[in-house]
Write a structure and sequence with these properties.
The chain is of the alpha/beta class and 237 residues long. Helix content is 37%, strand content 16%. The chain has an eight-stranded parallel barrel with strand order 1-2-3-4-5-6-7-8, surrounded by six helices. The active site is at 99 (proton donor/acceptor), 162 (schiff-base intermediate with acetaldehyde), 192 (proton donor/acceptor).
């Protein structure tokens, strides 16, 4: 979302529509996912984001809640054909959005042609209006590599570029990375900040830097600092 309204003016309801309420722990159970969905409905977030083995999900019929799933997660070192098959299966099981991980090593080597081809293979299995988000693992990249990865994602038809898996030892989202990614895609795609967004202040900083979606596991804590009064701000999605 592009708006002149400062992020600090977003109400709880406004801010909730930025959030992909996320559960990607390897030990997560179906009961954990059911609890995630219930909390997501209660909080009014935009989507839930889960591992592919958790699909299909049972979403209440009256809930305004999207389903996102990760692909090639968390290393990105899967063959493109495997990522594409994983995305196709997720689509057949009712996902609305796919968050794929690039081959980070290809980006580190400057092989952005391979990064683009990898993303294109997944994009081919995700027909519009379904959404493709591309995780570039920004904390593991230099600024030039971030720019190259974002340009490859846009060229391959991604809807979002996303900072992080939240599993890499280099860290998660930073304001600097989000700002650089937003400047690079320049409206041709949107930016999702994920990994380390744990507080209301974190969320506002990422939005002010250019993020229009947030990957958050502790959504209740992030929303707790927002005002509750109605706002004229449009939804983030």
């Amino acid at each position: 979302m592009t708006t002149s309204t400062p992020a600090s003016a977003l109400t709880v309801a406004d801010l909730a529509r930025y959030i992909d309420h996320t559960l990607l722990k390897p030990e997560a159970t179906q009961a954990d996912v059911a609890a995630l969905i219930a909390e997501a409905v209660e909080l009014g977030v935009y989507s839930v984001c889960v591992s592919p083995s958790m699909l299909p999900l049972t979403i209440p019929v009256d809930a305004d809640l999207k389903v996102a799933v990760v692909c090639g997660f968390p290393s990105g070192k899967h063959a493109s054909s495997i990522k594409a098959a994983e995305a196709a299966l997720a689509v057949s099981q009712g996902t609305d959005e796919v968050d794929m991980v690039i081959d980070i090593g290809a980006a580190k080597a400057g092989r952005f042609d391979l990064v683009e081809a990898d993303i294109s293979a997944v994009r081919a299995e995700i027909p519009a209006p379904l959404i493709l988000k591309v995780i570039i693992e920004s904390a593991a990249l230099t600024d030039d590599e971030i720019v190259g990865a974002c340009r490859a994602a846009v060229a391959a038809g991604a809807d979002f570029v996303k900072t992080s898996t939240g599993f890499h030892p280099a860290g998660g989202a930073t304001v600097h990375a989000v700002r650089l990614m937003a400047a690079t895609v320049a409206g041709a795609a949107r930016v999702k900040a994920s990994g380390g967004v744990r507080s209301h202040a974190d969320a506002l900083a990422m939005i002010d830097a250019g993020a229009s979606r947030l990957g958050v596991s502790g959504s209740r804590a992030v929303l707790s600092g927002a005002p509750v009064e109605p706002s004229a701000n449009p939804a983030a999605y």
